[in-house]
Design goal:
Elements (H helix, E strand, L loop, with lengths): L6 H4 L7 H5 L6 E6 L5 H4 L9 H9 E3 L2 E3 L6 H10 L3 H4 L29 H7 L4 E4 L12 E3 L9 H9 L4 H9 L11 H18 L3 E6 L1 H9 L4 H24 L4 E5 L5 E2 L2 E3 L2 H6 L3 E3 L5 E4 L1 E5 L3 E6 L5 H15 L6 E6 L1 H5 L8 E5 L3 E3 L10 E3 L4 E2 L13 E5 L6 E2 L2 E3 L3 H8 L17
Parallel strand pairs: 1-6, 1-7, 2-20, 3-21, 4-5, 4-6, 9-16
Antiparallel strand pairs: 2-19, 7-19, 8-18, 9-17, 10-11, 12-13, 13-15, 14-15
Length: 452
């Protein structure tokens, strides 16, 4: 499956620009995300039969959390934005993967664009600290400010034109330069398999060696993709993680080659749970007259809509201050909560949503029981529940142990073998900002102390 990195890439001579020379005072930082990596797959790797030598290095040669408590919803885009800002979705504004679009005019558009993030990022902190910055495929990175070399994450259809879209939105000339350096075409934006991760790793190594960014973000998607298809802990998911372990090894080696004093952090955005049932809240909302369908079977209008986020739903009202409408919706939710078939674990509203730092436009938030997954609107004929086409999911309220994510860090100044216990996801960004000489004053948690 894996190809060796091209010899030409390994022979690229380091080019130290004036900007790179100025970075000597700050610790360079490489931030790698493995989407969907459960902490136990590293900490209990031997017991689970996993060969992940590179990831285990972080445990023995650095510091690590036993688990990371994430945000609501525990899905990729809100979590990755918290990882790079240190604030909750309510503050940074990336409140789901997909945009709110009940009439589907945005054709399943995601929160790709950095302008939708209202918070200061680690890229901003790095540039203020005098560091150049790089990015390969980090979520919510299209047109991100203060990214010197940017390969943003975006796709539309899976058609070959998606590659042209990425090229058009990347730093001018960057895709071509790295394609020439690696001898490979860049991955399609919608490619989330191991080959896509492998190609992006080659481009990540190329970016590190050729441009030497003082702070760089790198995102790998294939584990999450496989866990959705086959379930967490499956043989296929384990095989994918072992491949990704090799990709991380290549990135670490490249970073240490150009920055021997670097700090390397490895994170994930959420855990994973096995699922077997889809819950379609559109059915009861249609039946209650809260959602109206047109002659074409599509949504024509809605007084209230369920906005799915994996294992949970945000409920948005067309008129949030309409007390009568809110009472109608609450009556529907109360009835569902009493129905075992709906698989509700909990419904929160108002102050409880604010306390979670979740979507401020949600009047209610529904958490499903582990094993159930929120269904999107497909058509008006689907029942309340039906068998799930996927075997793994996340997006449940972050209190669920299954949603714990990963944080590990090693390099200059990081003590070896240091167990940090359970940490809050919002503490990661201010920690990395501090290590590279920058600041994130709006972060909602203090930086992690590694002790002596």
């Amino acid at each position: 499956m894996r190809r060796a990195l091209p010899l030409a890439l390994a022979l690229i001579a380091p080019v130290l620009s004036g900007a790179a020379a100025e970075e000597a005072r700050a610790a360079p930082v490489l931030l790698i995300s493995i989407d969907g990596l459960r902490p136990g797959d590293v900490l209990d790797a031997e017991a689970r039969g996993l060969r992940v030598e590179t990831l285990r290095r972080f445990v023995t040669e650095g510091a690590y959390a036993t688990g990371v408590v994430g945000v609501l919803p525990s899905v990729t885009y809100p979590s990755h934005t918290t990882l790079i800002t240190g604030v909750s979705p309510a503050k940074h504004g990336i409140v789901n993967n997909t945009t709110y679009d009940p009439t589907q005019i945005n054709q399943s558009g995601w929160f790709w664009y950095a302008e939708d993030n209202k918070a200061r990022t680690l890229w901003d902190a790095a540039r203020d600290a005098g560091l150049t910055t790089g990015n390969v495929h980090w979520p919510v990175s299209v047109a991100a400010k203060n990214v010197t070399w940017n390969l943003p994450q975006i796709w539309r259809t899976g058609h070959a034109d998606d590659r042209k879209l990425v090229n058009a939105l990347a730093t001018p000339g960057l895709v071509g330069d790295l394609e020439a350096a690696t001898g490979a075409a860049y991955a399609d934006g919608k490619s989330e398999d191991l080959l896509g991760d492998q190609i992006r790793t080659e481009f990540g190594v190329g970016m590190i060696v050729k441009y030497q960014p003082g702070f760089m973000t790198m995102y790998l998607a294939a584990l999450d993709h496989t866990e959705h298809e086959t379930g967490p802990g499956s043989a296929e998911s384990h095989a994918a993680l072992e491949q990704i372990d090799g990709f991380v090894g290549e990135l670490v080696a490249a970073e240490m080659q150009v920055h021997p004093d670097a700090v390397i952090a490895l994170v994930s955005d959420h855990g994973f749970a096995p699922v077997d049932t889809v819950i379609n809240l559109y059915r009861p909302f249609i039946d209650a007259g809260l959602v109206t369908l047109g002659p074409d079977g599509k949504i024509a209008s809605a007084d209230a809509t369920p906005w799915g986020s994996g294992g949970s739903f945000a409920i948005r009202l067309a008129r949030p201050n309409d007390a009568a409408l809110k009472a109608r919706v609450k009556a529907v939710l109360d009835k569902l909560a009493a129905d075992p078939a709906a698989k509700f674990e909990r419904v929160i509203e108002g102050p409880a949503i604010a306390a979670e730092g979740a979507n401020p436009d949600a009047s209610f938030y529904v958490n499903l029981k582990i094993g159930a997954v929120a269904g999107p609107f497909v058509n008006g004929t689907l029942p309340l529940s039906f068998p799930s086409p996927v075997k793994g999911m996340h997006g449940y309220f972050p209190a669920a142990p299954e949603m714990r994510s990963t944080f590990m860090i090693m390099g200059k100044g990081i003590p070896k073998g240091r167990k940090l216990g359970e940490i809050d996801m919002r503490a990661i960004a201010p920690t990395l900002a501090k290590l590279m000489g920058g600041t994130l004053p709006e972060a909602e948690k203090p930086a992690i102390s590694f002790g002596k």
